[in-house]
Design goal:
Length: 982
């Protein structure tokens, strides 16, 4: 009776159950376990006894939507659980403020439905039903109303005593609305003469049928059956119905090894024995690739067999108990017998104990993990506080004909067609133009030593280190084996894994399972959920493929800075995104209101997905990569395939002809190498004028595919730039979305009346770059960025305030989720902040930490480390000061300086920046300084002079008051105050 696919039809099992409380963790697990055992996909729960803050306990355990109505104490409470495999699209939700009903208005595929979960009052209250059904009458579509109505419709048939005088008015009202809304009590319609009860009252020694479904009459033909299950765990029986919706084609679910099994010593021992046995028997009879492919199929079968057997043993025991309980209940319905009552009570006790033991065992690992981590800012805490409704279901999408489709199979087909077209090569006949373009560029090349290092063969030790370095907790690829499996059995798998890689290298192709990826989709922020291009494709690769890619990436990573200009700060060691933003701000400040000057932020169309492979291989060769390393890259991109996953449906594989797959450890570095020639061409292009500050001309800044171009002489530069990008795109696949690209004219008059018409959006009020809103007026940047962030933080902490988390947990939530956002702003924006900002944040933090109660300790004490009696609450003001003073570290860098350092150096042409801070008293320097970022640095140092003294004692710095003078001979000159002539 579960959700099935029979002759292209969708049958959904819907269950309603009064659980009589699920606040205790063990009871909650019993209820969830029972629901999973029933295999229902939509569940109505009554008497949850959960408050709003407790709902997270259900949301974290149910794979889908959880809609609820709760009361402000531990009473009443109703929930509707909708499994993520059900394509239900919610339009509207209505909740009873006292937790007696919840209504969801929406549709499944083409059927508009109102799902209603009801927990009726115990007293004779007709007004409750009046309010409920009058509300329902305003909603279009069919009704499925289920729950504990606390009111029998026909006492003669539905109560063991044959009468009920307690709720005459409520019964009359309920019956009238059943007629008015053309509803059907589905169980009674299918069982007109049967007597069966859903609730047993041990106090009143009576049984009654107060749990039922009311459905719209037009749905009657879609109901296959309706039945009651045994009374277990609660004193109410669950009632279920099976409804037939319409045709639906669903792929079988992808198998995944549950990582928790790897914590089970018996399981690890069993699987380890099977691994050893397989490779002892299968030696040289077949190729290494065939052996590896067969091994994954074999070990998957062994794992499934073991886990299924364990689950089956427990399931059979519980099913036998349930059958005995059901049989006794039927006998008791016919004839009361005290002996049978005692026997029934004993069986129910056994069932509940078995269910409780199962719940306790499943909690064991989770509790142990929480105990181990405590209040630490780790993954479990992040999992607990994240928004639970991050569902990736795609309920509707616009197809190629422009129509909106809600059919899951059609949705999957739409995405398959979209990606099949996206990954189809468009630059087959572009080799001549490509070579002409690239031959004019001067490529930095790898040294022979580096080339030899990259070309060396893979080793067991290297693979072992690679497996160790790959992060755990990632979704496995098509084979269902996560990286944790390889970590657990690493020593047993290294040799066969290496043999398979070496054979693949010789054959110049990977085994089929290593070439296949599953594409999952993530909606891009702010994009329409009904358009295919709005989703970012993430390729789920097999862990064995990832190990190979990661090994190559670990080799390449240290040498990327030698090949990539410091204009590019994405995916390059020791480079960060705030370098780009600080450069933009410095240029904006230095060239404020300059005529005939602009910043152009380019928006690339699916930049990672359009890189053409012939172009990529050609570029890698020009960077000096050796034949062996290039061969590995070609192997990874030989006949790769991918299937698209949407709403549990997996498409037929498509063949990839281009792209650097997002989700592959090697892809980021390959992408920045592929886009670097464009940056090289823009830097050297004649007919294109950048913005000059001091001796340096600034033309381009990149963070992966986020590109900003700095331009002057716009009437000449912009056409030449567009021509260059268009030419580059013809052989590389790189294209620009002009309407989504933004141009910011630095002059105020030109923003209103541009000196040249462009296809780009005129960003009169600025644009967003790497998460920072860039405004034309520098003084507006702080409120434009910080005000929305503070509002967001306040809303987030208000939402989290009611969570049952300790004080240390709350502080760690601030560390983990709030601090990184502010730290990014502090590093990126070298601008003074108003004192009121930190006062406001302190107030918000205090309310959250103390749950809106009177603080018992001032924040100053909570800032202190543990050894001094504090709790290490982040002091954002100190982080801000630290971020500003940290920028001075780059003045002393022995590596190539970020471009923003050169801009700030231009403001002090006669003195190196690394000596500037030591040339005079900071207060005097601040008065003389006009560069905003340097002024902020000095102001911060003056406010917290102890930090400045620490900075002045930096090992690379000269003694305070001493500067370095170059002449015929180098000598040190002691300064009395300020700069003096020598």
């Amino acid at each position: 009776m579960e959700q099935t696919t029979t002759q292209n039809t969708l049958d959904i099992k819907i269950t309603s159950w009064n659980v009589r409380g699920m606040r205790k963790l063990t009871k909650l697990k019993q209820v969830i376990g029972r629901i999973k055992q029933l295999k229902s996909k939509i569940i109505f729960i009554q008497e949850s006894h959960l408050t709003a803050s407790d709902i997270k306990l259900v949301q974290s355990r149910w794979p889908g939507q959880v809609i609820y109505a709760s009361y402000n104490n531990y009473a009443r409470g109703v929930l509707i659980l909708i499994h993520r495999m059900i394509p239900f699209q919610t339009i509207k939700t209505i909740k009873d403020p006292v937790g007696r009903y919840v209504i969801i208005h929406g549709h499944i595929l083409s059927l508009t439905l109102n799902l209603v979960c009801v927990y009726g009052p115990n007293e004779d209250n007709p007004k409750f039903f009046e309010d409920l059904f009058l509300t329902l009458s305003t909603l279009r579509g069919s009704y499925i109303i289920g729950g504990d109505f606390n009111c029998v419709l026909n006492p003669a048939e539905d109560r063991s005593t044959g009468c009920d005088t307690s709720k005459t008015q409520a019964r009359k009202s309920l019956k009238q609305y059943i007629v008015d809304l053309n509803l059907v009590e589905v169980w009674r319609e299918q069982n007109p003469d049967k007597r069966e009860y859903s609730c047993h009252s041990s106090v009143c020694k009576s049984r009654s049928r107060i749990d039922y479904f009311l459905i719209s009459r037009e749905l009657s033909s879609k109901i296959k059956s309706c039945w009651y299950d045994s009374i277990v765990i609660s004193d109410h029986a669950a009632i279920s119905l099976s409804i037939h919706i319409e045709k639906f084609i669903h792929s079988p679910p992808n198998w995944r090894l549950q990582v928790r099994w790897l914590q089970n010593p018996d399981f690890v021992k069993h699987v380890g024995t099977k691994v050893d046995s397989y490779f002892e028997i299968n030696t040289d009879q077949t190729s290494a690739s065939t052996r590896w492919e067969a091994f994954k199929a074999y070990i998957r079968g062994e794992i499934i067999s073991y886990t299924s057997s364990k689950a089956k043993q427990q399931r059979i025991e519980m099913e036998n108990l349930e059958k005995q309980i059901k049989s006794l209940e039927i006998n008791l319905n016919k004839n009361d017998d005290s002996t049978k009552q005692r026997e029934l009570l004993l069986l129910r006790t056994q069932y509940n104990k078995l269910s409780a033991d199962k719940a306790a065992n499943s909690l064991l690992w989770l509790k142990q993990s929480y105990y181990d981590q405590g209040g630490k800012a780790g993954k479990l805490l992040a999992w607990r506080i994240k928004k639970m409704q991050s569902d990736r279901s795609i309920n509707s999408v616009i197809n190629s004909s422009g129509d909106l489709t809600v059919d899951p199979q059609e949705i999957n087909n739409c995405f398959r067609e979209f990606f099949e077209h996206l990954y189809r090569s468009e630059c087959i006949q572009a080799s001549v133009e490509r070579d002409e373009f690239l031959c004019r560029l001067q490529f930095p090349e790898l040294t022979e030593d580096v080339k030899d290092e990259l070309d060396s063969g893979l080793t067991v030790e290297e693979l072992s280190q690679t497996i160790h370095n790959i992060n755990s907790g990632k979704v496995p690829g098509p084979d269902g084996l996560p990286i944790e499996f390889y970590k657990t059995f690493r020593q047993k798998l290294l040799t066969p894994l290496l043999n398979m890689y070496n054979e693949s290298y010789q054959n110049e192709t990977l085994p089929p399972s290593l070439r296949l990826a599953i594409i999952t989709l993530i909606l891009k922020p702010g994009k329409s959920s009904t358009e295919c291009p709005s989703y970012r494709p993430i390729s789920l690769l097999g862990a064995d493929t990832k190990i190979l890619c990661k090994a190559l990436a670990m080799r390449l990573d240290p040498h990327i800075p030698l090949l990539i200009h410091n204009d590019q700060n994405g995916f390059v060691k020791q480079r960060q995104g705030f370098h780009n933003i600080r450069r933009v701000l410095n240029i904006l400040y230095e060239k404020f209101d300059t005529r005939d000057a602009a910043m152009l932020a380019l928006d690339a169309r699916q930049a990672f997905d359009r890189i053409e492979w012939p172009y990529l291989f050609n570029v890698l060769s020009r960077f000096g990569f050796g034949n062996n390393f290039l061969k590995w890259i070609r192997i990874l991109y030989t006949n790769p395939t991918a299937s698209v996953l949407t709403n549990g449906t997996v498409s037929k594989p498509i063949i990839l002809e281009r792209s650097t797959r997002q989700g592959c450890p090697l892809s980021p570095m390959l992408f920045i190498l592929a886009i670097e020639p464009l940056a090289m061409a823009i830097r050297t292009q004649t007919g294109l004028s950048g913005i000059k500050i001091g001796e340096q001309e600034h033309r381009i800044s990149l963070y992966a595919d986020d590109v900003i171009i700095f331009l002057t002489n716009l009437s000449v530069s912009i056409p030449n730039l567009m021509q260059q990008i268009e030419r580059f795109g013809r052989f590389s696949g790189y294209t620009i979305n002009n309407s989504k690209s933004s141009i910011l004219f630095l002059n105020k008059e030109e923003r209103l009346k541009p000196v040249i018409n462009t296809p780009f959006t005129n960003a009169k009020k600025g644009f967003t770059y790497l998460g920072i809103k860039i405004t034309p007026e520098i003084h507006k940047i702080v409120p434009t960025n910080y005000d929305p962030l503070i509002d967001e933080v306040k809303e987030t902490l208000d939402r989290w305030r009611t969570l049952p988390i300790s004080m240390i947990g709350r502080i760690n939530m601030i560390k983990m989720t709030i601090l990184p956002k502010f730290l990014y702003f502090f590093q990126s924006l070298p601008l003074p902040l108003p004192k009121e900002l930190f006062d406001k944040l302190r107030s918000i933090f205090s309310k959250f930490i103390w749950n809106d109660k009177k603080p018992r300790l001032r924040l100053g004490l909570l800032y202190l480390p543990y050894e001094r009696g504090g709790l290490r609450l982040p002091n954002l003001k100190l982080y801000y000061w630290s971020a500003q003073l940290r920028s001075a570290m780059f003045y002393f860098s022995t590596e190539t300086s970020p471009s923003w350092v050169n801009i700030e150096q231009a403001s002090i042409p006669n003195l190196p920046l690394k000596l500037y801070l030591y040339s005079a008293d900071p207060k005097q320097l601040r008065k003389q300084q006009r560069t905003l970022s340097l002024k902020t640095l000095l102001t911060t140092g003056i406010k917290h002079i102890s930090i400045l003294k620490t900075l002045l004692s930096y090992p690379a710095s000269p003694p305070y008051g001493v500067m370095h003078i170059s002449g015929q001979e180098e000598r040190m000159v002691v300064l009395k105050s300020g700069l003096i002539e020598v």
